[in-house]
Design brief:
This protein is an alpha+beta fold. The chain has five helices and 14 strands. It has a seven-stranded mixed beta sheet with strand order 1-2-3-4-5-7-6, with helices on both faces. A hairpin with a 7-residue loop joins β10 and β11. The longest helix has 15 residues.
């Protein structure tokens, strides 16, 4: 596997890598993915950043078991500190250390003691937090970014101590709420820690025997999605709970 600076001729391959990564590993709608691709990864947008003096793009070319071609891509903004903006590995190259090698290359080429590596990662990248923690980066804040007319929740990572998941609700937690036209019941036992505020279990019955969903105590919404890896994501405010266990070798 070769790691080198991106070239203008790499633009179609980079877009292909990003497309596969977004479709496979991000909790995004087709419209949101298209907005990202058109605003950030069009030939024109990529060309400008490849030529920019304060942006560094690196690609991984080829990997064991694959024909030559771009298998991974990383972009770092060096205009204000050293901020990793995008890191994508093609789904067919996962588990071969491509992402790790790209981050190490960035640290060797760009990051210094005076300019430590940071990152801004879409909250929808569920595996991003665990992966970045391997490099001494911890989530320190949340933010929003606009791409192609769409607003995306962003997790901000810096070098330093990890920020603890908040266990304090930001809004009152009622005993019951109305959802789907019916009264639902909140359980105050075992709330699930979130990045901004905890999630509370919601039940369809007062005996708390029929699970309905989750209540986000950052914004008061029940628009919370859950997956088979125990990840929770609030569709209103971006508050989320990451999987308790994840294979960090994925990238």
């Amino acid at each position: 596997m070769e790691l080198r600076p991106a070239e203008p001729t790499d633009r179609p391959a980079i877009r292909d890598v990003v497309t596969g990564s977004l479709e496979t590993s991000y909790s995004l709608s087709p419209r949101e993915i298209q907005s990202l691709l058109e605003s950030e990864f069009s030939p024109e947008a990529l060309g400008k950043r490849i030529e920019a003096a304060d942006v560094r793009l690196f690609v991984a070319v080829g990997s064991e078991g694959e024909s030559d071609g771009v298998s991974g891509f990383v972009e770092v903004d060096a205009a204000d500190g050293t901020t990793l903006r995008w890191l994508h590995v093609h789904p067919t190259a996962r588990g071969r250390g491509v992402g790790t090698a790209l981050v190490e290359r960035v640290r060797e080429e760009v990051a210094t003691d005076d300019r430590p590596l940071g990152a801004r990662v879409l909250t929808a990248a569920a595996e991003g937090r665990e992966f970045l923690e391997r490099f001494g980066l911890t989530r320190s804040d949340s933010d929003e970014s606009d791409f192609g007319g769409e607003t995306f929740q962003v997790d901000v990572f810096t070098t330093g101590d990890a920020a603890e998941a908040s266990n304090e609700p930001a809004v009152p937690v009622p005993e019951t709420i109305e959802a789907d036209g019916e009264e639902r019941y909140l359980g105050d036992e075992d709330p699930v820690p979130g990045t901004e505020a905890p999630f509370f279990h919601v039940y369809s019955d007062s005996a708390h025997e029929e699970p309905y969903g989750y209540f986000c105590s950052r914004c008061g919404s029940t628009d919370v999605t859950a997956d088979g890896l125990d990840r929770l994501q609030c569709g209103e405010c971006g508050n989320h709970h990451d999987a308790d266990e994840w294979d960090a070798s994925f990238l």
